[in-house]
Amino acid sequence: MDTWTKVKTKKLRNIGAQLQKCMRNPCACCHETQWHFNLNITEIKEPKVIKVQRQRERNRTLVYYLPMKNNVGHVTKLKDSLVYSDTRDGAEIVVAPDSEILFYEIIATENLNATVLHNDISDIIYMEKSRRQRNREFSWTAYYDIDDINGFLRNMSETYSKWSEVIVGGQSYQGRSILGLRINTPGRKDSPKPVVFIESGIHAREWIAPATTTYFINELLTSSDPNITALRDQFDWRIFPSVNPDGYHYSFTVDRFWRKTVSGFGSRCFGTDPNRNWKYNWGQYSSSNNPCDNKYAGSQPFSEIETRTLSSYIKNISNLLAYISFHSSAAMLLVPYSDSTEHINNYDDLIQVGKTSLDYGYETNKEERYRGPGTAAEILYKASGGSMDWVRYTLATPLVYTYELRGNSFHWPPSRIYEQGDEVTQMILGLATEAHKLGYY
Fold it and tell me: Residue 268 and residue 347: Cα distance in Å, rounded?
């Protein structure tokens, strides 16, 4: 009798009740302990991703971290606990073949709908990490670990040394520097340019965000399109592809779906959600005080060295015009504040600028338009302690946005990174164009 059969009778009622609870009330799960099933398994083949939906109710995404193929293609046990993130239209759960019977009994008991999204998510992960897709030079047909991304930044700063330099925005728990690239072409010495800050990769598993950010850097520095060169020359750019370098490396080498930092590594439960750790309404919405939770907000605001040092860097920037954060994978544009439906004083301007940004992006993509712009509280879910809201509240930065890039189950085909890169480049161009029309610079 396998482990799942042993726990079936005991756990079925509790698991079903918890699934139903999470789907009825998205915040009900925020402070729950992760469920542990003691899976004594070292290899699992063909784990499926199954989407669970309940009609007419706002749902909670539940991602069950079962074993996946690791970076060299072997299947290894990664995690045996249920963790979750939010969506409005369903729950995505990774299910091993030997637990499918139990899973579908839960679905039937709770009267839920289930659709298989991926028959074998491990094949997708293996494909994402395949070295065969990587060129000898940094490219946008593959995903790269943090050292390669930092190498790209150094190479660009050397190639375009008159315009760019590597900058350090902070430090990580494991001693890595949070590296970015400053791009600032010569301008009038008596009139400093407005600063645009781009923060990317704060959630480790959202790989398309750092990839798209490096693509955008490359466009700014290499494009001959006069619209892009003008965009480059108008601002003092501070661009950080991965502000959670430890977590990103961990997602690349151990757990593909890791979201948090790795502070406290070695403990049974470690890491903090760095986008719940900023000192703005900390710990109120869509966050947890349980260290095992995927949205653990930390022991206090700025408990994480990553958020503490990065926020200090940002506070010392003069003339900060715009703060842009890249996430995935909901295909939407968000404005402050994420935990309130009350609108800030230049909300109408932000919406107008945001709509133009999305118009520019749609002209590139034409398949599906981003949702929004709007607050997360209105079009996604309430969330507190995020970087975007802290920047707006603390520094009164005029233009503050979060772009949720495209994707499915945090996956975007590496061969198509350029598509999102082109779309994002045009969206930023649209943002700058409309902001200029409204007199922001």
Answer: 43
Q: What is the dihedral of CA 322, 402, 228, 395, to 10 degrees?
A: 10
Write the pLDDT tens digit of every residue in 344-356.
999 999 999 999 9
Active-site residue, from 304, 404, 419, 423: 404
Q: Omega of the bond prior to 172 within 30 degrees of 0, cis?
A: no
User: Distance between CA 89 and CA 233 in Å, rounded?
Assistant: 41
Long-range contact set of residues 339-343: C-beta below 8 Å, sequence gap at least 24: 339/281, 339/284, 339/285, 339/286, 339/376, 339/377, 339/382, 339/383, 339/384, 339/389, 340/375, 340/377, 340/382, 341/375, 341/377, 341/378, 343/375
Query: Can the peptide bond before residue 373 be classed as cis, meaning omega within 30 degrees of 0?
Result: yes
Residue-wise burial string across 339-367, b where 16 or more C-beta atoms lie within 10 A, e elsewhere: bbeebbebbebbbbbbbbbbebbbebbee
Q: What residues pair up with 37 in beta bridges, in sequence order?
A: none
Active site residue 110: no
Most confidently predicted of 6-20, 38-52, 63-77, 298-312: 298-312
DSSP string, 273-337: -GGG-SSSSTTSSS-BS-TTSTTB--SSTT-SHHHHHHHHHHHT-SSEEEEEEEEESS-EEEES-
Residue 362, preceding peptide bond in cis (omega within 30° of 0): no
CA angle 129/134/139 to nearest 5° reads 115
pTM equals 0.83
- Quick one: pLDDT at residue 19? 43
Q: Are strands 195-200 and 320-328 parallel, antiparallel or unpaired?
A: parallel
The candidate with the shortest Cα–Cα distance to 351, out of 382, 378, 330, 385, is 378
Task: Kindly write down the DSSP assignment for every residue of 175-211, as one continuous string.
Answer: S-EEEEEEE-----TTSPPPEEEEEE-SSTT-THHHH
